[in-house]
């Protein structure tokens, strides 16, 4: 017997669902090994994780709160990757978005919330977008690789934020903690439900996903982004302005990451500090890849990743198994999805080899 | 010829792709020193058969047998390119399989030995030089493949196969990219190789060259063997009918009535990467006239095409469209001004493979009110246009929503024709309009181009197929080393004159010569 691969013409929806599901199940099976090694029972651990992520209103709120920035950074990665613009800088764009929110929303102007919140959001979007537009221009003009620029900018931005929150932006009332002055009340995102941390940033994320989904399917811009991403040469030949389209993608991508930063500052923390994000920008890439770069899939993947982390924390408290297990689940899921995508592109055939006459 | 030993034998090869039977019980024998032509339209199953032979596909039924060293035929394990290579099968694909960033010599050696091996390069070079001397396949071995012309890349591919001591050389549509002289050169090479004992399978849909080079012809149609004949006794007309299964209508053309100049190159030069460079080009494209641009590939055709496509602007000189100078490069402006452009490499520049047929037909005009309003796509209009294009231009595909990558080369070209001709363009650039197309599709494309000319469009046809240029062009221009020479009306020209001009010999004006 020998194994052969033949390219598929088309992968059906049911096949895609089966592959995604199988990837999740296999990831959980693989994680069972370290769980057992740590002295736990896999089924119990998974049950506790599920409980911890969705078992109560509070747990659900924590999961969705955690998913909020991931939806936005996931969308940021998804929209850019579709156009083959490799934005690895969502982390930095998130911080710059948060910085813009603090600059505009901590007393510079005083407007009623209905105006103040959109102003803060627009500022964060534009600031984050600019952080991606600049590397894209550099790429177009000088051919510099955007992966390197955006990745390195993350560190530049975080050091810059540290400088600010220990310097000019430092809150005199913070008892010496390196954090910025807080947002004024009008700029804060309202909570969705009383006594729970879920905030309107979640709605922003869902609306953004919906808009992107519509954009890809229904608009000229979405059409042009697809064409540029799938075949730049043909897009250029057909008269699609490739550079301009890329800049629009950069603005949208960086802007969405900037909005994630606005959400964290205005919805959760109220002030800016250099530990605002535990790597939401990087996790966004994982989320987008898990989702196969689909906007709706990004929402689901973001909730999944958030649930794994929140659930693992809770499971860890109950069983003593390290919460690093969450990183393992996410990483293995991603690997399984990537392996799975291989089966969407090729069909595997077993054939009997004939022996030479 | 038939008393020579059999080198290769295919027996009852059958291959199915779902419901489609690509090859239906096909058998053939190839003898030592024989050139066998495999003739058939696109989709007749030629390439599938060769892919099976070469182990890229696994046949559902049947055997491939190759003459082994011990003198008997041995069955080749299916689905093993390695075994095919080892058995002495060499293939030159229609789409080259070269590493663009390596030199020609490295490409020839690639896969046969470690690249980082001291001293072996000299041995390899000597061996390639020997093959070159024997076969006449002259090419610069040290240039990067990316910088070579298509014709040169093909020579590297053939050398690669010969370097591996191929006993059987399979060429898939080898002349699609060559000038007549180059093609003639290739035929000489092939005959010489055959005399030295090589077996050659020559896949083609061009009758003329098949008759010129082969000893025996095998005609495939719709996956089955339609006929097998000895070339010396073959009749052109009969083979064409055998291929298509029905009589092919001749394309009729009426004399041109040239009108006003629509596009004009006025002393246009283009700096840039060698192959695009142009110097002092003067050219007028007039309404109702087809200008044929002949030239060896890589002499500046791509520069002229880039200028008309809106991908470049002149470095000096003026390019005028309807009397106005074009100063910035923008494909969209040209599309909107009514310029139809058919790209040379239609798979690469012509379509976005992962987008649908409907998307690809609308792609040039996606911002026009016909297909979008306020930035929102009018999917219904796009589908309707695609549906009418599919039937009007006979684009064979599962439907408007099928991905363009699933279309064959001929159907991609029909899709592009539907995209650019439906707008009744005033200027048409047809760059290699029928490269790789079968007889039926070729006639269809020619008919469309002639109809556009009769409607009053100015047409520039760039082609490496002189037969095509003589079938279409009213007037000839020839490009050599970036300079354009006027060759005059097509009635006063013959292939020899064009060939000399392509080689860079300026035409002696008739008046002075006599």
UniProtKB/TrEMBL annotation, chain A:
A cellular component annotation (GO) from this entry: plasma membrane
Bilayer topology annotation: Multi-pass membrane protein
Keyword terms, alphabetized: Cell membrane, Membrane, Transmembrane, Transmembrane helix
Lineage summary: Bacteria, Pseudomonadati, Pseudomonadota, Alphaproteobacteria, Hyphomicrobiales
Organism encoding this protein: Devosia riboflavina
Transmembrane segments annotated in the record for this chain: 21-43, 63-81, 93-109, 115-135, 147-165, 198-216, 237-260, 280-312, 324-344
Protein name: ABC transporter permease
Keyword Iron included in the entry's annotation: no
Alphabetized GO MF terms: transmembrane transporter activity
Location of this chain's protein in the cell: Cell membrane
InterPro entries reported in the protein's UniProt record: ABC_transp_permease
Automatic annotation (TrEMBL), chain B:
Record has ATP-binding as a keyword: yes
PROSITE patterns listed in its UniProt record: ABC_TRANSPORTER_2
Pfam families with a match to the protein in the record: ABC_tran
ABC transporter domain residues: 8-247, 263-506
InterPro entries: AAA+_ATPase, ABC_carbohydrate_import_ATPase, ABC_transporter-like_ATP-bd, P-loop_NTPase
Gene Ontology MF, one: ATP hydrolysis activity
Record key words, sorted: ATP-binding, Nucleotide-binding, Repeat, Sugar transport, Transport
Domain of life: Bacteria
Record-given protein name: Sugar ABC transporter ATP-binding protein
């Amino acid at each position: 017997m020998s194994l052969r691969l033949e390219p598929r013409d088309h992968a059906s929806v049911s096949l895609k669902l089966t592959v995604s599901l199988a990837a999740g199940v296999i990831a959980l099976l693989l994680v069972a090994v370290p769980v057992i090694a740590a002295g736990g029972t896999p089924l119990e651990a998974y049950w506790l994780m599920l409980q911890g992520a969705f078992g109560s209103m509070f747990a659900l709120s924590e999961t969705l709160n955690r998913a909020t920035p991931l939806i936005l950074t996931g969308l940021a990665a998804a929209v850019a990757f579709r156009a083959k613009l490799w934005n690895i800088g969502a982390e930095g764009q998130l911080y710059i978005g948060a910085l813009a929110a603090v600059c505009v929303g901590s007393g510079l102007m005083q407007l009623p919330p209905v105006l103040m919140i959109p102003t803060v959001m627009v500022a964060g979007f534009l600031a984050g977008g600019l952080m991606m537009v600049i590397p894209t221009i550099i790429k177009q003009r000088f051919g510099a690789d955007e992966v390197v620029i955006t990745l390195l900018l993350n560190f530049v931005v975080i050091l810059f934020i540290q400088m600010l929150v220990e310097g000019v932006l430092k809150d005199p009332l913070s008892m010496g903690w390196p954090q910025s002055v807080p947002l004024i009340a009008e700029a804060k995102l309202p909570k969705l439900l009383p006594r729970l941390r879920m905030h309107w940033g979640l709605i922003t994320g869902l609306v953004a996903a919906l808009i992107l989904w519509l954009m890809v399917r229904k608009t000229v811009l979405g059409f042009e982004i697809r064409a540029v991403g799938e075949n730049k040469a043909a897009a250029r030949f057909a008269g699609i302005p490739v550079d301009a389209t890329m800049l629009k993608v950069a603005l949208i991508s960086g802007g969405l990451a900037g909005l994630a930063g606005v959400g964290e500052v205005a919805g959760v923390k109220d002030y800016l500090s250099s530990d605002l994000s535990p790597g939401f920008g990087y996790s966004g890439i994982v989320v987008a890849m898990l989702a196969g770069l689909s906007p709706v899939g990004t929402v689901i993947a973001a909730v999944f990743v958030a649930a794994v982390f929140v659930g693992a924390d809770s499971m860890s408290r109950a069983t003593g198994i390290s919460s690093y297990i969450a990183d393992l689940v996410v990483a293995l899921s991603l690997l399984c999805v990537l392996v799975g995508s291989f089966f969407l592109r090729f069909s595997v055939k077993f054939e009997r080899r004939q022996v030479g006459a | 010829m038939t008393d020579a030993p059999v080198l290769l034998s295919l027996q009852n090869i059958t291959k199915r792709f779902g419901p489609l039977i690509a090859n239906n019980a096909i058998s053939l024998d190839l003898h030592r020193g024989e050139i066998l032509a495999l003739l058939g339209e696109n989709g007749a199953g030629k390439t599938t058969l060769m892919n099976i032979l070469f182990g890229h596909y696994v046949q559902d039924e049947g055997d491939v047998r190759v003459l082994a060293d011990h003198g008997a035929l041995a069955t080749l394990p299916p689905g093993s390119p390695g075994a095919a290579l080892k058995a002495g099968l060499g293939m030159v694909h229609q789409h080259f399989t070269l590493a663009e960033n390596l030199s020609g010599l490295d490409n020839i050696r690639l896969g046969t030995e470690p690249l980082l091996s001291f001293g072996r390069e000299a041995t390899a070079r000597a061996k390639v030089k020997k093959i070159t001397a024997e076969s006449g396949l002259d090419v610069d071995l040290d240039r990067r493949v990316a910088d070579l012309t298509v014709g040169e890349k093909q020579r590297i591919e053939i050398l690669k196969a010969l370097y591996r001591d191929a006993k059987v050389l399979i060429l898939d549509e080898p002349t699609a990219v060559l000038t007549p002289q180059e093609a003639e050169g290739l035929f000489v090479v092939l005959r010489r190789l055959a005399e030295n004992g090589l077996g050659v399978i020559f896949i083609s849909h061009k009758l003329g060259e098949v008759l010129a080079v082969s000893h025996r012809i095998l005609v495939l149609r719709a996956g089955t063997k339609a006929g097998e004949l000895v070339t010396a006794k073959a009749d052109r007309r009969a083979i064409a009918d055998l291929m298509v299964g029905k009589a092919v209508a001749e394309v009729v053309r009426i004399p041109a009535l040239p009108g006003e100049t629509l596009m004009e190159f006025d002393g246009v030069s283009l700096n840039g990467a060698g192959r695009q460079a142009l110097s002092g080009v003067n050219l007028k494209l007039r309404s109702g006239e087809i200008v044929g641009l002949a030239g060896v590939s890589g002499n500046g055709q791509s520069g002229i095409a880039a200028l008309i496509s809106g991908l470049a602007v002149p470095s000096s000189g003026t390019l005028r469209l309807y009397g106005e100078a074009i100063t910035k490069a923008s494909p969209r402006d040209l599309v909107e001004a009514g310029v139809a452009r058919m790209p040379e490499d239609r798979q690469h520049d012509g379509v976005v493979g992962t987008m649908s047929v409907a998307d690809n037909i609308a792609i040039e005009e996606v911002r026009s009110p016909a297909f979008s309003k306020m930035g929102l796509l009018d999917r219904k209009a796009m589908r309707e246009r695609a549906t009418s294009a599919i039937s009007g231009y006979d684009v064979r595909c599962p439907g408007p929503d099928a991905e363009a990558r699933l279309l064959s080369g001929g159907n991609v070209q029909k899709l592009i024709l539907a995209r650019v001709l439906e707008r009744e363009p005033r200027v048409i650039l047809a760059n290699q309009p029928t490269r790789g197309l079968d007889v039926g599709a070729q006639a269809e494309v020619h008919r469309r181009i002639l109809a556009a000319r009769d409607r009053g469009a100015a047409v520039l046809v760039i082609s490496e197929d002189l037969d095509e240029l003589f079938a279409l062009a009213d007037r000839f221009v020839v490009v050599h080393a970036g300079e354009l020479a006027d060759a005059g009306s097509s009635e006063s020209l013959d292939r020899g004159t064009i060939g000399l001009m392509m080689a860079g010999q300026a035409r002696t004006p008739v008046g002075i010569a006599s």
